[in-house]
Amino acid sequence: MSYGASLAKLASPLKELVSNAQSNTGTSDADKAEVISWIDKVAAGDVAKAENFQDLDALLTPRTYIVSNYFTAADVALYGALHPPMSQLQPSQYYATPAITRYFDHIQLRPSVSSAAQALSPAFSLITFDLDSAPKIERKAELPKKKEKAPKPTGQQPQGTENAERTAATEVSKGEGATVSNKEQKPQKEKKEKKEKNKDTAVAQAEGSKKKGGAAPANKPAEDDGEPVPSMIDMRVGHIIDVKKHPDADSLYIEQIDLGEETGPRTVVSGLVNYIPIEEMRDKYLVAICNLKPANMRGVKSFAMVLAATSKEGKDGGVELIQPPPGAKPGDRVYFEGPEYENAQPLPQLNPKKKIFETIQPGFTTLETKEAAWINPVTKSVHRIRTKDGVCLTPTFVGASLS
């Protein structure tokens, strides 16, 4: 069945809402078929019944959108079908289905949906939710503490001093990350052990990436004793599963980001309050740089950085998060195109004293196609930033600076 035939099954004004919301109908044949299937379910009338809310809530718990990981017409249809029952719920009732409430609020606040809904008012009036008073969801992420009790090798790498002032708009922190021992080392023997330790750590990270669906680099682990190259940077796909404002800084958000790690989500501190509304941060897929030196951000320790694009007019022109391609999953490896970079192993941790990221960062930009890339300042060769599923990009910026 075609998309138009399924759309025709919807009753007014839901049909007009879906038609006017400027939504995607699917970027692949499989996604297109799933969009049509969901519109058919909405037209049948069962999906939005209160007795089916628990099943729908379970389905939406790990999802940002109902089809794949991008906004489609199926989301508009489902939002419209949910509007009548959601408008009748008391706080205790919508607290009981947090995934539906989160999803519904996210979709209704999208500009294209909001505009289409206003044109059909009062059928799809804005519903406000008292989310600040919602019961807190307990997240278990304490496994690293047990792992730290294991005997530590004598030759662990010292972490050095805190990273210098960063040019990035955002910082990611892992709430209970392991601390590397910084005890005295004997010059010759310990230096050799430290080198072996770095190699073992990098191999372990590659194995972990393979378990989570990312392609494990084939080459030997990188070393930081040469000229800085982009492949030294460890980039991965992340997914924001929770976000709130920092209690001690008006310009900062605190997020929980799923990076596909068995230890649970990392805590994110990002300076985006003045640039991206909190509604647009919820459930966002992004690119995170995961091997920066930990740093404190107003009392929260930060272990990595979210890659963001700043307009070529500067921050007054806006800031956007770099988006991974459709189909990307938390923990997927993000890398630079080119035979010299694609299979190279990133460093376990960037040494802040060597300013590797600061040296590479000026070459980060977005192309005319809005694709994220690194341009070699010497050869002028272009190396797009991608996952195995496609190239990462910015929603609107051309010629933006990435940091």
From TrEMBL:
Annotated stretches, region: Disordered: 140-230
Stretches assigned to the TRNA-binding domain: 229-335
Keyword Glycosyltransferase: no
The UniProt record lists the keyword RNA-binding: yes
Bias type Basic and acidic residues, positions: 183-200
GO cellular component: methionyl glutamyl tRNA synthetase complex
GO molecular function term, any single one: tRNA binding
Keyword terms, alphabetized: RNA-binding, tRNA-binding
Domain GST C-terminal as annotated: residue spans: 1-143
Name of the protein described by the UniProt record: tRNA-binding domain-containing protein
